[in-house]
Each structure stands twice: as structure tokens, then as C-alpha cells.
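Entry 14. Structure prediction run on the chain below.
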Amino acid sequence: MNLDEQAPREAALADPEAFVAGLQRPVLIDEVQRGGPDLFLAIKSIVDEHLSPASSS
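Output returned:
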């Protein structure tokens, strides 16, 4: 995934939560900063949701 490309970048900016939810995992997002601050919040939300109890200490 590369946010230098217009289509994924526009999708990430338009609806960060839906963009992240639709990604197949694991995923590497190149140029993630181009998705804006709300994209980081959406990623954090998904990561927090999927942390196993053993990994949260």
C-alpha cells in the first residue's frame, strides 16, 4: 500500500476508519503520513482493538 498513489490516499483521507478496516492484514503502508492525522487514530484504534490480553502489560 502506497499513499503516494492518489486513489488510496484519497480513500484514506475521505474515511480513515473504513480505509483501515478494509485493509488485508498484515499490511505495510508506505508514506502513511500522507493519510493525515485521522489515519493514525484509525490505525491506533484497530491495533488497540486487536491486542491480545497477553501483549498488554
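The chain has one domain: 6-50.
Filed with the rest of this week's runs.
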